[in-house]
Amino acid sequence: MENQFRRLLKLGVCAAVLGAVPASAQDTQQMEVVTVTGFRGSLEKALDVKRNSASAVDTIMAEDIAKFPDLNLSESLQRVPGVAISRDAGEGRQLSVRGLGGGFTRTLVNGMELLSTGGGTDASGGTNRTRTFDFNVFASDLFNQIDVEKTSMSETEEGSLGSTVKLYTAHPLDIDGFKLAASAKAGYNDLSHTYSPRFSALISDTFFGGKLGVLFSGAFVNRDLLDEGFSTVRWAGGASPVANGFRSVSGVSYNGTALTTTDFNSSAASTVFHPRIPRLDKYVDKQHRTGFTGSVQYKPDDATLFTLDALYANFGGTREEQFLESFTFQQTGVCGPTSPASCGINQVDIVGGTVIEPRSGVRELVAGTFNNVDAKSERRHDKLMTEVYQVTLAGTHSFSNNFTVKGFLGFNSSVFANSEQTTMQFDQYNVQNYKYDFSTPFPTITYGSADLMSSTAWQLVEIRLNPNWVYNRDTQAQINAEWKVMTGLTLKAGLNWVEAKNRAVTFNRSNGTNASRGAVLPTGVPALSTVGMTETFNLPSQPSGNPTKFFAPNIMAGIEALHLYDSTYQSAQTVIANTTWVSPFKSTCFTTAGCGVFNVGPESALGSNYTVQENALGGYLQADFDTDLWGVPVRGNFGTRVVQTIQNSLGYGVLTTKSGAITTNTITPSTYHRVYADVLPSFNIVVEPIENLLFRVSGAKVMSRPGLGSLNPGVTLSVSGNKTATAGNPEIKPYRAKTFDLSAEWYFAKGGLISVAGFYKEVGTFVQTYTSPQSVFSANPWGLPDSQADAACGTLAGCSANSVVWTFSYPINTPGGPVKGIEINYQQPFTFLPGPFDRFGAIFNLTLVTSKIKYLNASGAVSAVDQLTNLSQRSWNATLYYEDDALSARVSAAYRSKYLTQVPGRNGSDVEGTAPTLNVDASITYTIDENWALTLEGLNLTNQRQSQYFDSSEMLSFKHMTGREFLAGVRFNF
Q1: CA–CA separation, 442 vs 280, rounded Å?
Q2: Which residues share a beta bridge with 936?
């Protein structure tokens, strides 16, 4: 008893040490709890998991994760064959596995599906309202094993077309006795010139003769980031140009022939593309990432084990976006009280320029000099937070040597809050001698007669308030049984119940109607001096010739001066004559008291306010076998999973009625209910005809449920900038596919592997977002009355139901198509070489994927046949490492070829896409003794830029850099 008391006292003291770590923690060294001998040992252990698995799986073990130089979990996963990542704010965010994007991949944490969503920049997808898991919420060090399961087994829950990613946190009974690990790191970014602290710790111990185990871990990272570059927010022209085109054209050369206004007019068959919003960008991110895990295990005897796991993560901070830009090239009509009636592209004169024809029928005004261009200085402030909780309880009991029952209960919650999203815009009108040049890899934009550093020259023109939230909640229960019928044959059966609820909430500035209020300012504000509401922003990394600094709105000063967060400020609202609004939302706007001019509500963003609830009940029967056929070892499994899904969707729309001269607009909920079922057979067979040479063959029917945002039955009208109507489609069919895999694996030496895997997926249907050409509002596909468009437009000039400016977007099912590819994997420690070269080793994998997907237009006709979106046809990863008793070093490279993001593209393009990337990282660890080690890491050593393109001619749409990061630190283990 005295001994147990001492152990409890020791645990309490160490817990106090852990408590000294800031109450936010990520990037922990808990990975070291897995007993392996260095990085090489962890690779060998991961190969053992791969070799012994019946399904095709790739594994990263504890030390493997802990010692890769990775900012978060997704960057660890990019080392796995077939896995590519997309990035936001300089770090990995989402996965693509074997060409299928994150929406086709399920992520399990300690056996339970978790949907973790965050908010990125608009260029990286913005707020995540899909099933895609945002891996940047977590640091890789919170987990001690990651499995990427690429073929299906009946015992694994449905929902994946690409893969199932299984994340496991550390467990105390896997550790021999007491363990304490801690680390501290300091990071430096060479673009932002900022320092970032990182701390982590883990403590674990066992009691009562190893029957009870307790483990805690925590980590914290603080990161300041500069993200700088330029963008165009697509290009305009082509088949869907800005109406009426430029006012005049002179001096523009095209194949030796002078262009005329007709070439740029919307009626011209050969309209020239030009940047929609040419701009210089600067993002400033301040992030903090916190994580904790806890585990209690009780094993009263060898037949019984109970495990209680808890996980907490908090990823948040602020992002400040600054743009020096022009909206002129995408605008028509009046855009300000002091501008001429022909404001927008209609007033612009082209003084000179350069037009190229990169492909037949596509011409681009890549450079030009212009008069009467309106300059804009825009500032956006975001306050962001993702908070994740998960608790799971698992129990296993063996009633005999041949019969075991496993039970599981779990609950998780993920809440994303963009509680502040505030945008202010300043304009200067009629700038002369404005120039842009996008003919080079690093564009230049100059602002001619504009006075960028005069607070009196700028005029406040727009204020947007767009806070938004996403709530995810899952509850799950499982019961599974295993019966060893005889040697080499085990039957498995189980039931699984899941209730998942997703709710999205979006607010805009609102006066109780569905009219946009962003450009509506209180009386006197447009003439208000911007002095006191400006601040200077520097652009140190722009190419020579671009402005190096400019005045931008000071959001914090504007909030105070204009009472932006006071929903009662100037409560008197303009009443729409002969119109009455009725709403189910709580709002003072529908009372005689009115509401403030900066009130926010969901009324003007109805399509982004919805709830989707799914209840899934599934069961499976599976047979595992392990035998010899004619002296050849054969093992694997076959079985069937049956699942029923009940879907309930809730959205909002506007019902318009008239009684005499009075129009009544009622915001009404709309609901949709459906039930569908799937029968999903699968098999996995492993044959070992020669020792250490394995052949695998697998096949399955699989399904993945459609994106959550796609199931919204509501419609949103937006008249800020483009005039759009956007809706979901609750009748979207799930993705269903037949898959087949064939592979060969040769384990030619200890820690050595050469493998080749081919895979084929025949996907029955995909989902694409269709966006219509510009038309009048009455052409909308939902039968909405023109009165809804007129209500949304309000008094906004150039906006009405009869204007040919409306586009309609909604998801549709497409015929689907095949996705096929090959993976090549090689890893080997160079122990066959003489010293010191025997301390080296290498890992390399290559994935080649292709697809042939049909994309439809609104009439259901095939408009394009191209690659699947988010599919990179080539990706590879390579690592060269060195390890001895004291020194461990490695350098890693990850390449991803370009991929499409939208087909057909918007604004008249055939496609939109993302350019290829090559990221190089390195790390060195020097072990002083068994307790202490020093670390040095470098990330993004080539300062890889993130680029996006418009059209297959690859017009530049977005190009940013975030700089290199260097981290130095110390590790402690006891």
Answers
A1: 11
A2: 924, 968
pLDDT band at 787 (very low <50, low <70, confident <90, very high): confident
DSSP string, 824-842: EEEEEE-TTSPTTGGGEEE
Q: How far is CA 690 from the centre of its chain?
A: 44
Q: How far is CA 873 from the centre of its chain?
A: 20
Give yes or no for a contact between 914 and 890, defined as CB atoms under 8 angstroms apart.
Answer: no
**What whole-number distance in Å separates Cα of residue 213 and Cα of residue 208?**
9
- CA dihedral of residues 785, 789, 795, 800 (deg, nearest 10): -90
Type of residue at 777: F
Is there a contact between 806 and 793 (Cβ–Cβ < 8 Å)? no
The encoded tokens of residue 461 equal 């023109």
Between β-strands 723-727 and 766-771, what pairing exists: parallel, antiparallel or unpaired?
unpaired
Cβ atoms of 114 and 412 closer than 8 Å: yes
In the Cβ-directed half-sphere of 88, how many Cα atoms lie within 13 Å?
22
C-alpha dist (Å) from residue 275 to 258, 279, 566, 818? 21, 9, 37, 35
Q: Is 379 in contact with 369 (CB distance < 8 Å)?
A: no
Calculate mean pLDDT across residues 394-417.
Answer: 96
Mean pLDDT of all residues in 730-755: 95
Residue 556 φ then ψ, to 5°: -65, -40
When comparing pLDDT for 817 and 769, which is higher? 817
Amino acid letter, 362: V
The pair of structure tokens assigned to 456 is 């009196």
- Flag whether pLDDT at 562 surpasses 60: yes
Lowest mean pLDDT among 30-34, 268-272, 538-542: 30-34
Alpha-carbon distance of 494 to 474, in angstroms, equals 19
For the cut 70, the answer to whether the pLDDT of residue 859 exceeds it is no
Q: What's the first-to-final CA gap in the chain, in angstroms? A: 24
Number of Cβ atoms within 10 Å of the Cβ of 642: 16
Question: How far is the C-alpha of 204 from the C-alpha of 11, rounded, in Å?
Answer: 8
- Asked if the peptide bond before residue 836 counts as cis, ω within 30 degrees of 0, the response is yes
Q: Of residues 129 and 352, which shows the higher confidence score?
A: 352
3-state secondary structure of 9: helix
The identity of residue 636, as a single letter, is G
Q: How, if at all, do strands 752-763 and 179-189 pair?
A: unpaired
The whole-number pLDDT of residue 942 equals: 94
Rounded to whole angstroms, the Cα distance separating 35 from 218 reads 20
More confident residue, 545 or 797: 545
Residue 238's beta-bridge partner residues?
A: none
Distance CA(215)–CA(170), nearest Å, equals 8
Q: For residue 721, what pLDDT is reported?
A: 65
- The Cα-based distances of 288 to 9, 140, 475, 655, 682 in angstroms read 32, 15, 28, 44, 43
User: Can you give the pLDDT at residue 64?
Assistant: 53
pLDDT at 181 over 50: yes
Query: Which tokens belong to 594?
Result: 């009115």
Query: pLDDT tens digits, residue range 52-74?
Result: 999 999 998 876 555 555 667 78
Query: Mind listing the pLDDT tens digit for each residue in 375-388?
Result: 999 999 999 999 99
pLDDT band at 36 (very low <50, low <70, confident <90, very high): very low
CB 451 within 8 A of CB 428: yes
Are residues 886 and 927 in contact, defined by beta-carbon separation less than 8 angstroms?
yes
Residue pointed to by tokens 């899952």: 474
| This prediction's pTM | 0.89
What gap in Å lies between CA 652 and CA 787, rounded to an integer? 17
The answer to whether the CB of 188 falls within 8 A of the CB of 224 is: no
Give the rounded distance of the alpha carbon of 733 from its chain centre. Answer: 23
Distance CA 151, CA 101 (A): 16
